[in-house]
């Protein structure tokens, strides 16, 4: 009884075991104590765990998107372990502003006059609409009223910001004159939303962002450009083209350009805002800015990631997302052979051609060639084997296709192979499936 009072997880494990036994057609467990102990162990483990990503989806939203560069991890640990100069100016000994930590480097990398970092891109968009829209109407092309992950929709975000949606154009074609008519109607701002998670083809038309920004400037209203993924590097060597680069969007003249830190940028979750000093300044001074401000860990990791870009080739080599996207097919084939060699003998392996995905709502049409390791087990089906991999320690998430488990080495670093071998060995062992 004392144990139950001291630790509520014990009672919860007992209740779960009894409930599972009542649901099971096989009857009660052979050993009640062992079953309770196992459920207690699961409850004691953290639910947020490291995972080996063998899916080949580089920016896997459900698996935390971008893995951080070693330099970014080190920077986070350095400020997390003690106190930091988050809002303290060391030379003067007076209070500082956290918004200054990434400001200068973002300006240098993007060519913008000013910059501000908040906790995510959706928050950045709400902040921009709140500060610049002033509760008025915001003009958006019907072809850009997109839904992003988790059922978040641009119209809903507009409504939450207090702005009112003014739809222009059609689903497939929007012309510059549609924006001009909206300005004559009295809209407070023009919003451009990059269609990062789907593509339009056929009879389509969209004005260039530069033309929209110039039209807004002539009318004296702000232009906001939501880029989504936040690309700084040149990924054309991997055949990845069509995604706008941040410096190009800034040069096109939008008052505010918004992008994510944890997608193609390869850093932590963050909403980055760059652009004209007057527009960014209004966002910085908005009362809502405090509600979406970035914490010290985010600023530390983002700053370290951005400094790698200033090193040029260092970014392509050190930032995991970029290294994975630029991995050559020949290199991936060699890694697939090594990964297959890590598999226990009870797993039949075959190397098959396949494709990886960028993920994260970026380059939706891109198919990156890779070599997959196809696995089959003499007694376990593919879904059962995949379940064992997901629930093992370490946990591994893989694809299932054609009745086999598929491992993509693009998203498994070489240093992950020993852990992957352990996961595969444990999954292939005889035993009951997890409940």
How would you portray this structure in words?
- It is a single chain.
- This protein has 18 helices and 18 strands.
- It is of the alpha/beta class and 435 residues long.
- The chain has 2 domains: 43-65 and 327-428, Aspartate Aminotransferase, domain 1, CATH 3.90.1150; 70-318, Type I PLP-dependent aspartate aminotransferase-like (Major domain) (Aspartate Aminotransferase, domain 2).
- The strands form 5 sheets. The chain has a 7-stranded mixed β-sheet with strand order 5-13-12-11-10-6-9, with helices on both faces.
- Helix 6 packs across helix 7 (154-161), helix 6 packs across helix 11 and helix 17 (382-391) crosses helix 18.
- The radius of gyration is 25 Å and the shape is globular.
- The mean pLDDT is 90.
What level of helicity do the residues show? 40-55%
Largest sheet: 7 strands, mixed
* Structural class by sheet pairing and helices: alpha/beta
Shape: globular
Overall pLDDT: 90
**Spatial strand sequence of the major β-sheet:** 5-13-12-11-10-6-9
Q: Give the termini separation.
A: 27 Å
- Which strand-content bin applies to the residues? 15-25%
As residue ranges, the low-confidence spans are: none
Going by CATH, the architecture of the largest domain would be: 3-Layer(aba) Sandwich
β-strand number: 18
The total number of structural domains is 2
Quaternary status: single chain
**Tell me, what is the CATH class of the largest domain?**
Alpha Beta
Number of helices in the DSSP assignment: 18
Tell me the CATH superfamily of the largest domain. Type I PLP-dependent aspartate aminotransferase-like (Major domain)
Q: Within the CATH hierarchy, at the fold level, what is the topology of the largest domain?
A: Aspartate Aminotransferase, domain 2
| Rg (C-alpha, Å) | 25 Å
């Amino acid at each position: 009884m004392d144990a139950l009072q001291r630790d509520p997880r014990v009672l919860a494990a007992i209740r779960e075991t009894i409930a599972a036994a009542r649901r099971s057609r096989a009857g009660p467990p052979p050993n009640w104590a062992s079953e309770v102990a196992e459920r207690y162990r699961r409850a004691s483990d953290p639910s947020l765990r490291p995972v080996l990503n063998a899916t080949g989806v580089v920016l896997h939203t459900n698996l935390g998107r971008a893995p951080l560069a070693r330099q970014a991890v080190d920077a986070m640990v350095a400020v997390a372990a003690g106190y930091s100069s988050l809002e303290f100016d060391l030379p003067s000994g007076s209070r500082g502003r956290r918004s200054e930590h990434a400001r200068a480097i973002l300006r240098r990398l993007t060519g913008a006059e000013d910059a501000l970092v908040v906790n995510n891109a959706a928050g950045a968009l709400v902040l921009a609409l709140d500060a610049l829209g002033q509760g008025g109407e915001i003009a958006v092309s019907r072809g850009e009223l997109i839904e992003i992950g988790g059922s978040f929709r641009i119209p809903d975000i507009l409504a939450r910001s207090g702005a009112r949606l003014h739809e222009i154009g059609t689903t497939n074609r929007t012309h510059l004159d549609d924006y001009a008519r909206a300005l004559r109607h009295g809209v407070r701002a023009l919003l451009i939303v990059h269609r990062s998670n789907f593509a339009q083809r056929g009879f389509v038309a969209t004005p260039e962002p530069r033309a929209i920004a110039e039209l807004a400037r002539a009318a004296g209203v702000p232009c906001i450009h939501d880029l989504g993924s936040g690309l700084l590097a040149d990924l054309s060597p991997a055949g990845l083209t069509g995604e706008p680069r941040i410096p190009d969007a800034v040069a096109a003249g939008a008052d505010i350009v918004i992008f994510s830190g944890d997608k193609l940028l390869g850093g932590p979750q963050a909403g980055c805002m760059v652009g004209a000093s007057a527009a960014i300044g209004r966002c910085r001074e908005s009362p809502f800015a405090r509600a979406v401000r970035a914490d010290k860990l985010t600023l530390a990791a983002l700053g370290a990631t951005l400094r790698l870009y200033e090193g040029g080739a260092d970014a392509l080599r050190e930032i995991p997302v970029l290294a994975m996207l630029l991995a050559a097919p020949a290199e991936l084939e060699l890694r697939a052979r090594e990964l297959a060699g890590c598999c226990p003998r009870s797993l039949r392996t075959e190397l098959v051609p396949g494709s990886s995905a960028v993920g994260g709502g970026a380059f939706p049409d891109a198919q990156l060639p890779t070599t997959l390791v196809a696995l089959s087990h003499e007694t376990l089906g593919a879904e059962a084997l995949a379940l064992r991999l997901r629930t093992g320690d370490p946990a591994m998430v893989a694809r299932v296709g054609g009745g086999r488990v598929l491992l993509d080495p693009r998203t498994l670093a070489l240093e992950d192979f020993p852990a992957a071998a352990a996961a595969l060995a444990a999954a292939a062992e005889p035993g009951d499936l997890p409940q």
